């Protein structure tokens, strides 16, 4: 028969060890017990405080202090739990920071809105930079002058550095619980993170000075600059490297999360331990880099990402606040070994708390004028909230523990000084969290900063009425049921719509039209813009836009919301992002490799087209939603009209791209169709799986194939097929008619390059080196050989040949030619053109006809601007006659035609004015629209029927009959 020997229960949490005071008797695994109990307490506190306004972090600190008091300050020991408490309380300060800060700081920076960070950055830097230095001096001076500890100035300033910065861990946790406005939260959170990092740099400086190292003023400034800027640079490097890595990861959220978590720890260690910089500033920079890219996560991945970081931040917050309470309790009871009058010590803690509040008030109001001007501005209520949010927390405790760990040498830091640092810091943490943390919500309510605005109250009532209509619809469905049920019981649980229910009994009935009435134009525009944002997300998840464009679209909404009182301005922001920056002109030079130029230029143009397409699509959806919810009222009609005006601008941009670079539009639409087909195939596979006609193994196999295709599409989308120089030359109406030998020579000497808008092909008066064929895009002439007042600016679209006329007549370039869009320019070397002219064989006449096209648009832009390039070519082919004249001949020009002097020189018989080529010879049909260089066509001459000229040098004149054009 089996017997069981009775004995002590092996997992008695409260069992006292044989020698509880001896650390060697404790089991290291007891630390796990403390961690588990702490998390359990955190879950309990969050559950109980869910419907209250009390920050759960404050309760955690109090619970931790109570546990520490039971273990360190009473005879009621906590057994194995107490062993775990002691193990955690004796944790190394640097290890404490290294374990918790990478999670908490990165999560705080990552969760902030990039748009608001940019707006609030000057305010944050002002408080985190000069503000920390001023606060350090104020606190250090007060400690030196008011406290009886006989510390030198360096030691006092060291304590001032520890207490000068608000703790980001405590502040972020508090503001998330209180639900403060996003603008205010961004300022307080960002300033808290930055000034804590800056304070650590200042702390490290005074820490080394206390331990005997001397610094001059120059070396002090160098140390502060290197510690701050170096930290930011390290964070940026790690962030950019991580984002580059993430580009090669597709649809794998687990890898995304793991990489971010790993990099945060490695970056912190690199900055804090290896570079001797501020790990906190590094984490802030790293988190902001990731925050800038979080919009590139698709909807499911983005939601999972926030849930992941929210969970681990909650775990870290729970542990660190309970542990902070334990450390505070330990410092309270250990101070009795150095100070017989603990009451006096507590009095100095309260005095220090007052000093902290006064110092922070001085700092905030010293910079108040600048804070009101910078960023979003600041009013006095928000300034008071910023002052009251100056909590101290785990970071300050960890720094004071570092001081305590280094104490023991009376020459530098005595053990009493180290213990007093922990006690004063712990007391400050306790008082700021309990007093400021627990009353912050009351202060927000007192200032009315947590109340709903009038527009928000209107939306609340609208939402309730919509719920009431849904309840009414459901009641009609259920009324036909044969199963009996009690309507009053059902209605008793629908308290959310009780105050808008028009009936005293259920089922409910309402006659409300269901339209949302918003009188405030700003709120109406904000609603429209938020609907636009959601449409962007849907478009992104559908694959119609790519990752590089979603951030621009989201930022445009944020910028427009800031300017909602002035109208819809999201297109204004987008239009600035569509323009090619000035440095892109470097890619259009011969120095940059053509492939690199194409990649940069085409990528920019593709992104611009994606942005415009998504903008038009999202605005159409948002307009329809706005009308569905608000009806066709006056305010909604105004917003819809503003949206339609902006859409028109976007459509103009797409039309310009289509005219200048149609290959981009083809690529964009091909990608969208490809993605739609692959997604429909994926949905078809899911339907077959639900119907059960496929085995699991088959579904997984085909699903992997589809995912590979989608990944291939996202990483290597359809490329833009830019025509080769030979292809462009072959399809040109003039050059394509040349003999194969001529075409072969041209192709051998031709090269292509993409030019961005604003690039100069050649300048007026420069030496002729090449002839340019415009394959795509358009070019505009900027300076002609005529007086400035002449309207000679002309646009040359695709198919134009520029510089050919100058090559034939042997002149330098006649004007500046500047691209006004992205243009594919084919450069043909002058040697090839000269070779063609030397062979003659009828080629010269064809080239002269092509020159007529360019000269006609240059000399008579008003006459030919209404014609397309093909129409001008048809006019020259069908209605032009070219004649050559020898010297001393007298020629007569009829007023029924337009004549261009292409070569040679003439003298006007009536005015004796010398006319050199190129020139337009006057006729009555152009007398009212064209300014001439040869003769003033006003007065008598303008009404004559013909003009006579004497040929000075052999001339070539082309006559174009455009009377019927």
Report on the structure:
- With 965 residues, the chain is of the alpha+beta class.
- It is elongated.
- The model is unreliable at 1-24 and 923-944 (pLDDT under 50).
Low-pLDDT residue intervals, each spanning 5 or more residues: 1-24, 923-944
Q: What would you call the structural class?
A: alpha+beta
CA radius of gyration is: 39 Å
Approximate helicity band: 55-70%
Termini gap: 119 Å
Give the biggest beta sheet. Answer: 6 strands, antiparallel
How would you sum up this structure in a few lines?
With 965 residues, the protein is of the alpha+beta class. The chain is built from 34 helices and 14 strands. β11 and β12 form a beta hairpin.
Write the layout of secondary structure elements.
Elements: H1 30-48, H2 56-72, H3 79-89, H4 93-111, H5 114-128, H6 130-146, H7 153-164, H8 168-178, H9 182-210, H10 217-246, H11 253-274, H12 279-293, H13 299-334, H14 342-366, H15 368-373, H16 380-388, H17 394-406, H18 415-446, H19 454-479, H20 487-492, H21 521-541, H22 547-562, H23 570-578, H24 594-630, H25 634-660, H26 662-691, H27 696-715, H28 725-731, H29 740-749, E1 750-755, E2 760-762, E3 770-776, E4 779-781, E5 795-796, E6 801-802, H30 804-809, E7 817-819, E8 823-829, H31 830-839, H32 843-859, H33 861-864, H34 869-879, E9 880-885, E10 890-894, E11 898-908, E12 914-916, E13 919-921, E14 946-960
């Amino acid at each position: 028969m089996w017997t069981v020997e009775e004995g002590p229960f092996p997992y008695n949490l409260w069992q006292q060890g044989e020698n509880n005071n001896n650390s060697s008797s404790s089991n290291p695994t007891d630390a796990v017990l403390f961690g588990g109990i702490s998390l359990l307490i955190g879950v309990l506190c969050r559950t109980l405080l869910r419907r209250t306004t009390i920050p759960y972090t404050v309760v955690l600190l109090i619970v931790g202090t109570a546990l520490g008091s039971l273990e360190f300050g009473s005879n009621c020991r906590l057994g194995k739990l107490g062993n775990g408490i002691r193990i955690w309380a004796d944790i190394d300060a640097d290890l404490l920071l290294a374990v918790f800060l990478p999670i908490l700081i990165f999560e705080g920076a990552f969760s902030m809105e990039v748009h608001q960070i940019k707006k609030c950055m000057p305010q944050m830097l002002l408080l985190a930079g000069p503000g920390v230095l001023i606060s350090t001096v104020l606190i250090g001076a007060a400690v030196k002058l008011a406290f009886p500890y006989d510390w030198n100035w360096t030691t006092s300033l060291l304590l001032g550095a520890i207490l000068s910065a608000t703790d980001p861990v405590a502040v972020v946790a508090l503001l998330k619980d209180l639900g403060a406005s996003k603008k205010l939260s961004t300022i307080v959170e960002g300033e808290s993170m930055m000034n804590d990092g800056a304070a650590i740099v200042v702390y490290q400086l005074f820490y080394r000075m206390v331990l005997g190292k001397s610094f001059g003023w120059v070396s002090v400034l160098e140390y502060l600059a290197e510690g701050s800027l170096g930290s930011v640079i390290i964070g940026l490097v790690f962030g950019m490297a991580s984002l580059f890595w993430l580009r090669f990861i597709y649809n794998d959220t687990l890898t995304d999360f793991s990489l971010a978590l790993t990099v945060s720890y490695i970056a912190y260690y690199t900055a804090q331990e290896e570079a001797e910089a501020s790990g906190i500033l590094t984490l802030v920079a790293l988190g902001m880099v990731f925050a800038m890219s979080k919009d590139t996560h698709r909807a499911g991945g983005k939601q999972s990402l926030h849930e992941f970081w929210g969970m681990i931040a909650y775990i870290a917050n729970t542990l660190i606040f309970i542990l902070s309470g334990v450390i505070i309790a330990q410092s309270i009871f250990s101070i009795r070994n150095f100070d017989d009058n603990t009451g006096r010590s507590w009095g100095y803690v309260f005095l220090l708390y007052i000093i902290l509040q006064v110092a922070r008030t001085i700092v905030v109001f010293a910079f108040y004028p600048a804070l009101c001007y910078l960023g979003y501005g600041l009013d006095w209520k928000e300034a008071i909230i910023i002052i009251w949010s100056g909590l101290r927390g785990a970071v300050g405790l960890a720094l004071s523990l570092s001081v305590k760990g280094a104490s023991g040498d009376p020459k530098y830091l005595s053990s009493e000084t180290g213990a007093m640092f922990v006690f004063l810091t712990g007391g400050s943490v306790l008082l700021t969290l309990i007093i400021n943390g627990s009353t912050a919500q009351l202060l927000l309510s007192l200032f009315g900063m947590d109340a709903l605005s009038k527009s928000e109250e209107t939306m609340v009532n609208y939402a309730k009425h919509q719920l009431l209509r849904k309840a009414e619809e459901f009641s009609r469905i259920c009324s036909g049921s044969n199963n009996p049920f009690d309507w009053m019981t059902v209605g008793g649980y629908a308290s959310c719509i009780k105050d808008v229910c028009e009936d005293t009994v259920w089922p409910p009935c309402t006659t409300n039209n269901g339209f949302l009435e918003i009188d405030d134009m700003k709120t109406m525009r904000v609603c429209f813009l938020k609907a636009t944002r959601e449409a962007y997300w849907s478009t992104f998840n559908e694959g119609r836009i790519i990752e590089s464009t979603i951030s621009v679209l989201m930022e445009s909404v944020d910028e427009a919301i800031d300017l909602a009182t002035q109208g819809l301005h999201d297109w204004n922001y987008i239009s600035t992002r569509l323009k090619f920056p000035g440095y892109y002109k470097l890619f259009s030079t011969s120095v940059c490799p053509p492939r690199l130029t194409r990649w940069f230029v085409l990528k920019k143009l593709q992104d611009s087209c994606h942005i415009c397409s998504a903008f038009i699509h999202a605005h159409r959806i948002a307009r329809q939603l706005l009308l569905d919810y608000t009806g066709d009222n006056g305010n909604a009609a105004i917003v819809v009209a503003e949206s339609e005006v902006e859409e028109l601008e976007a459509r103009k941009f797409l039309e310009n791209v289509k005219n200048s670079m149609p290959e981009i539009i083809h690529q964009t639409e091909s990608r969208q169709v490809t993605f739609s087909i692959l997604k429909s195939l994926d949905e078809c596979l899911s339907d077959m799986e639900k119907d059960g006609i496929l085995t699991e193994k088959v579904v997984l196999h085909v699903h992997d194939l589809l995912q590979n295709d989608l990944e291939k599409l996202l990483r290597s989308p359809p490329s833009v097929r830019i025509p080769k120089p030979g292809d462009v030359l072959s399809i040109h109406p003039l050059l394509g008619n040349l003999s194969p030998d001529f075409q072969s020579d041209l192709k051998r000497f031709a090269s292509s390059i993409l030019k961005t808008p604003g690039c100069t092909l050649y300048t007026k008066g420069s030496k002729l080196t090449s002839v340019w064929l415009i394959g795509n895009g358009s070019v505009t002439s900027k300076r002609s050989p005529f007086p400035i007042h002449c309207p000679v600016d002309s646009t040359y679209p695709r198919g134009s040949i520029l510089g050919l006329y100058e090559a034939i007549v042997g002149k330098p370039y006649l004007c500046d030619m500047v691209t006004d869009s992205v243009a594919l320019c084919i450069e043909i070397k002058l040697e090839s053109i000269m070779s063609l002219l030397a062979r003659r064989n009828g080629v010269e006449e064809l080239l002269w006809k092509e020159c007529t096209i360019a000269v006609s648009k240059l000399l008579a832009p008003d006459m030919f601007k209404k014609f397309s390039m093909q129409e001008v070519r048809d006019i020259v082919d069908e209605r032009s006659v070219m004649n050559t004249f020898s010297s001393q001949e007298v020629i007569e020009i009829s007023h029924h035609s337009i004549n261009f002097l292409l070569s040679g020189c003439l003298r006007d018989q009536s005015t004796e004015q010398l006319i050199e080529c190129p020139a337009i010879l006057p006729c009555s049909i152009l007398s009212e629209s064209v300014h001439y260089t040869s003769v003033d066509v006003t007065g008598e001459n303008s009404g004559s029927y013909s003009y006579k000229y004497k040929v000075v040098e052999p001339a070539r004149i082309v006559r174009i009959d455009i009377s019927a054009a």
